[in-house]
Design a protein that fits this description.
Elements (H helix, E strand, L loop, with lengths): L14 H5 L4 E2 L2 E2 L13 H22 L6 E6 L14 H11 L8 E7 L3 H8 L7 E6 L3 H7 L9 E6 L8 H10 L3 E4 L1
Parallel strand pairs: 3-4, 3-6, 4-5, 6-7
Antiparallel strand pairs: 1-2
């Protein structure tokens, strides 16, 4: 079945046309990648996930308590299924954990989480994870480069902050990633 765009944070009528159904990544054919989500995370992956959780735990409150920030966007465009085969939380579950810890602080802010993985089964699995309260979550199954190309086409509200977690399994056009991040203004990325 077509793994067309399920939704985008925020909605933009041009996104489906921009994303298309291209099977390349960064203009290059994607190499076959072993599905490392079918086993437990190794020590290096666990360390990266701990760094993500610690980083976003410090990053989020800055914008929750900044008066001129109205919208907070968190992007994980290589999200995987949310956990490994042992149930150890992956990046989506760790992002949710941090957001849940700050539920009481999310007052007049709009929090948007965009989770994407090229594998629609992983995205569907991730979509079944209990979402944090007061948070809009959207799930897509597209090549991440197409997502990065589409993001600048939407006019975000003034006073929006963006956080990108970029942990790919394959080839990434970091120039395009950094260009997208730079165009958004208040943005940070953990690469």
């Amino acid at each position: 079945p077509d793994t067309s765009l399920l939704c985008f944070v925020p909605p933009c009528p041009r996104i489906p046309a921009l994303l298309g159904n291209r099977k390349t990544h960064g203009g290059l054919d994607m190499p076959a990648v072993t599905n490392f989500h079918n086993k437990s995370f190794d020590d290096g992956t666990l360390l990266k996930l701990e760094i993500l959780e610690d980083y976003i735990s410090e990053w989020l409150p800055v914008f929750l308590y900044t008066p001129n920030i109205s919208d907070i966007y968190i992007y994980d465009l290589y999200c995987g299924p949310g956990c490994d085969t042992c149930g150890i939380p992956g990046s989506p579950m760790r992002i949710y954990k941090v957001l849940n810890a700050h539920t009481d602080s999310i007052k007049n802010k709009k929090i948007h989480v965009w989770l994407n993985d090229m594998d629609s089964e992983k995205t569907a699995t991730c979509a079944r994870i209990e979402k944090p309260q007061k948070v809009q979550c959207c799930f897509t199954s597209k090549p991440a480069d197409k997502c990065f190309e589409a993001i600048p086409s939407y006019k975000f509200p003034n006073g929006s902050a963006h956080f990108f977690y970029v942990d790919p399994c394959g080839i990434v056009d970091y120039k395009m990633v950094l260009k997208t991040i730079d165009r958004l203004g208040i943005s940070e990325a953990l690469l």
